[in-house]
Write a structure and sequence with these properties.
By secondary structure, the chain is α/β, with parallel strands linked by helices. The protein folds into two domains: 2-137, Nucleoside Triphosphate Pyrophosphohydrolase (Alpha-Beta Complex); 144-314, Rossmann fold, CATH 3.40.50. It contains nine helices and 13 strands. It is globular, with a radius of gyration of 20 Å. Residues 3-133 form the Nudix hydrolase domain. This is NUDIX hydrolase.
């Protein structure tokens, strides 16, 4: 069997007169009803592909919510050989009506969850639907993302003669910053908070320029500020939790463990995915996030009511 085929998609959802509905797509080539999905472009992150494919197939502009179960099944590749197709899915709330349809989709239909389950042609697609319904019943379908970022790769300390906070990204780091920009867009990030160190600010700069967003620099997120008063970094995190706005926070290796420990305290043991979420946060804290890594934390609620319900790690 050939190498797995990576693909990504979404389960778009909305509420109409208080009822949960999801959007299915019809492909005339196969005469089937399924979720919007498609193959990744070379070098494209999974979440970015999910948003792009949803827009291309349904004309729906979506921001990703919590991840849903992955699907794996066997298809025939371009040469007619069997290959495993791996599809990563996300819940995605639709807030605007769809435009004209393009590509291989000839119809998008919004259905309540019972009708959708009956209409889906593949049993594997009902796995994502059941997960979405469980999250809705648990009150954890509507989430907001907080993206913790360790700055991208910078010029080495030994190669830099200036002050350490002025040390810039290297070429690899600059490329990673551009890729991170597309990742932030997939989750609809609206607020950017960063250490004032150049390597952190430059990691968020491409997205800030693209979206016209200000970079809010906080001394407490720098290595130097953290060494003087470690509690300041956690206070900056709490302010983001109070706002409940989709945000990205960029800091340094020595600072991030305290922030991750704070988020661990927001995982409720009764949550269905509590063990998985806890393991992901502990791994990021104890093994250290990689340079240029983005940890997407999905939360419900704000301030004292905020709790973590899902986590994704996006490595360079």
């Amino acid at each position: 069997m050939t190498a797995p085929i990576p693909a990504a998609g979404t389960v778009p959802w909305r509420r109409r007169r208080g009822q949960l509905e999801v959007a299915l797509v019809h492909r005339p080539k196969y005469d089937d009803w399924s979720w919007s999905k498609g193959k990744l472009d070379p070098g494209e992150p999974w979440p970015v592909a999910a948003v792009r494919e949803t827009l291309e197939e349904t004309s729906l502009t979506v921001g990703l919510g919590r991840p849903l179960p992955t699907a794996e099944y066997v298809v025939l590749d371009g040469d007619g050989a069997p290959a495993t197709k791996t599809v990563h899915y996300w819940a995605a709330e639709a807030t605007e009506p769809a435009g004209p349809l393009h590509n291989e989709i000839d119809e998008v239909r919004w259905l309540d969850v019972v009708a959708a389950s009956d209409r889906l042609d593949y049993a594997r697609d009902r796995v994502q639907l059941r997960a979405l319904v469980r999250a809705d019943k648990a009150g954890t379908l509507t989430t907001w993302p907080l993206v913790l970022v360790r700055h991208a790769r910078a010029v080495g300390r030994g190669s830099w003669s200036g002050e350490d906070p002025l040390r810039p990204l290297d070429r690899v780091g600059e490329r990673r910053a551009v890729l991170l920009s597309s990742l932030f867009g997939a989750y609809g990030v609206k607020r950017l908070v960063t250490s004032p160190s150049v390597r952190c600010a430059r990691t968020l700069a491409p997205y800030a320029a693209e979206r016209g967003l200000p970079l809010r620099t906080k001394d407490g997120l720098s290595e130097e500020g953290f060494a003087v008063d470690p509690k300041r970094a956690v206070r900056h995190l709490h302010r983001l939790l109070e706002r409940g706005t989709p945000a990205a926070l960029c800091s340094h290796g020595p600072v991030l463990p305290d922030l991750l420990s704070t988020l661990l305290d927001l995982v409720h043991p009764g949550e269905p995915d509590a063990a998985t979420v806890t393991a992901s946060l502990e791994a990021a804290r104890d093994d250290a996030m990689g340079k240029g890594e983005a940890l997407v934390v999905h939360l419900v609620g704000q301030a004292e009511e905020a709790r973590v319900v899902a986590v994704e790690r996006h490595l360079p």
